């Protein structure tokens, strides 16, 4: 198994919104309110179109032949461009199978727009077989390929009405569910200056996704029962070595489920 589970957290891209909607005279909070009002009028929701999301955190769970670990890219001072560059650099270095929950519908399109904005090159990610033959029938961008597995998309049989929240599936399987702030509250936490909390939340989400992915791998025959238990055991061993507060809370919540 060689995979990289990823998740991003975003806030409204105020700078672009000001330019697009002629809001240059407004302060940040007023500009966000105006952007949301425009969005409600056009689409009936406050949720920004994907090109108006700014990435503030990217967390990954990397499983290699020798190791498993979870972390957030960069640090609290890293720019959006640095976070995105690090993400695509990881793909260049490891060429892993990517794993996500709703990555096709949200995370990857947002990363595409932001990489375009920042001029970030990602040759391996965009490869479709022109330069590397083994990408011809298994690329990161092919929806029905396996180099990127959007577990939500696959389990729902690519049907929007069949999609389920990660938290629901996580709890159904006996894991912890979402700890802390939900994704829709990220902007509030970011405005309060607590980026560390957002990164912690994002890390627990990628671990939740990895645990669901392991069950999917068992279901599709890539892991047998013993292999699944070994992988879960590896996660537990990694968690036991972590002393940060969010991992202590995660470990306690998992134990409380009896899962």
Break the fold down into its secondary structure elements and pairings.
Elements: E1 3-12, H1 14-21, H2 28-43, E2 53-63, E3 68-72, H3 80-94, E4 97-100, H4 103-118, H5 123-126, E5 148-150, H6 151-155, H7 166-172, H8 186-191, H9 195-219, H10 225-240, H11 245-257
Parallel strand pairs: 1-4, 4-5
Antiparallel strand pairs: 1-2, 2-3
Task: Tell me about this structure.
This protein has 259 residues and is an alpha/beta fold. The protein has one domain (3-257): 2-Layer Sandwich (Nucleotidyltransferase, domain 5), CATH 3.30.420. It has helices spanning 14-21, 28-43, 80-94, 103-118, 123-126, 151-155, 166-172, 186-191, 195-219, 225-240, 245-257; strands at 3-12, 53-63, 68-72, 97-100, 148-150. A five-stranded mixed beta sheet has the order 3-2-1-4-5, sandwiched between helices. A hairpin with a 4-residue loop joins strand 2 (53-63) and strand 3. Helix 1 crosses helix 2 (28-43). The longest helix has 25 residues, at 195-219. The protein is globular.
Question: In short, what is this structure?
Answer:
The protein has 11 helices and 5 strands; from the N terminus they run E-H-H-E-E-H-E-H-H-E-H-H-H-H-H-H. It is an alpha/beta fold and 259 residues long. The two termini are 23 Å apart.
């Amino acid at each position: 198994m060689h995979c990289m589970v990823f998740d991003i957290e975003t806030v409204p891209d105020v700078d672009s919104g000001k330019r697009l909607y002629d809001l240059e005279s407004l302060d940040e909070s007023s500009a966000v309110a105006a952007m949301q009002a425009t969005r409600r009028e056009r689409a009936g929701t406050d949720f920004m179109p994907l090109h108006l999301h700014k990435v503030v955190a990217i967390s990954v769970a990397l499983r290699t032949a020798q190791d498993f670990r979870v972390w957030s890219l960069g640090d609290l001072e890293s720019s959006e461009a640095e976070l995105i560059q690090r993400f695509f650099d990881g793909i260049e270095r490891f060429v892993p199978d990517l794993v996500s929950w709703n990555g096709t519908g949200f995370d990857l399109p947002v990363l595409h727009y932001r990489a375009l904005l920042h001029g970030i090159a990602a040759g391996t990610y965009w490869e479709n077989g022109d330069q590397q033959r083994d990408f011809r029938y298994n690329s990161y961008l092919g929806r029905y390929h396996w180099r990127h597995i959007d577990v939500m998309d696959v389990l729902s049989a690519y049907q929007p009405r069949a999609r389920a929240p990660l938290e629901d599936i996580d709890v159904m399987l006996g894991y912890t569910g979402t700890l802390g702030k939900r994704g829709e509250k990220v902007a509030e936490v970011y405005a309060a200056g607590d980026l560390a909390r957002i990164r912690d939340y994002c890390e627990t989400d990628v671990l939740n996704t990895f645990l669901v992915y392991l069950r999917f791998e068992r279901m599709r025959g890539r892991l047998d029962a013993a292999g699944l238990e070994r992988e879960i055991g590896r996660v537990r061993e990694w968690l036991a070595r972590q002393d940060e507060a969010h991992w202590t809370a995660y470990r306690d919540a998992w134990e409380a489920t009896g899962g």
